[in-house]
Design brief:
Elements (H helix, E strand, L loop, with lengths): L13 H31 L5 H28 L8 H7 L12 H28 L3 H22 L7
Helix pairs in contact: 1-2, 1-3, 1-4, 2-5, 4-5
Amino acid sequence: MKTKLIPTQNSLPEPTRREMIELLNQQLADAIDLGLQAKQAHWNVKGPHFIGLHELFDKAAEKIEEFIDDIAERAVELGGVTLGTLQVVANSSRLPAYSLTISSGKEHVTELSNALATFGATIRAAIDTATEAVDADTADLLTEVSRGVDKLLWFVEVHLQARE
């Protein structure tokens, strides 16, 4: 069943817009899940590096929120409907479930690093799809998200690389 597009004067062909809306909604589900995982780490981290990690995880969640908004708005710009409800995210996210039994900083750093890396891989695949569909604007947006996610991954996983 085809989703009804909202009328727009956007010049991309309708099949391309439909494909990109679906792609963006998938990335949106993953991004919302990623943002909630960062907040889970923020709220529950314990240990000697608490304050630094607590603040890092919160800043990561804030940055991910920016990505979420940009991805959602692009889907609407193309004449789509953004699918960002909890029910959709729970059924659509491709990220592994975040462990609810961890508390140490190292465990949260590992878990969130894994989620960021997984999301980064899906974004890079989505860039390729948008490029093949000849939607340079969506590819550009996703490239910006990819750079941001790689930077967040660096900020988080560097805590696993220290020699103590």
